Amino acid sequence: MARIALEKVDKTYPNGYVAASGLDLEIADGELLVLVGPSGSGKSTILRLIAGLEGVTAGTIRIGDRDVTALPPQERDIAMVFQSYALYPHMTVRQNLGFGLRIRKMPSAEIARRVAAVAETLGLSEVLDRRPSQLSGGQRQRVALGRAIVREPLAFLFDEPLSNLDAQLRVETRAELSRLHRRLGATMVYVTHDQVEAMTLGDRVAVLKDGVLQQVAPPMELYRNPANRFVAGFIGSPAMNFIDGAIEPAADGCRFTSPVVTLPVACAAASREPAVLGVRPQHLTLDGSGTNGSGALRGQVVLVEPLGSEQIVHVALPNDTRVVATVPPDARVAVDETITLRIAPSAAHLFRAHDGRRIALAGA
Ligand SMILES: Nc1ncnc2c1ncn2[C@@H]1O[C@H](COP(=O)(O)OP(=O)(O)OP(=O)(O)O)[C@@H](O)[C@H]1O
Ligand SMILES: [Mg+2]
Question: Whole-structure pTM over 0.85, yes or no?
Answer without folding.
Answer: yes
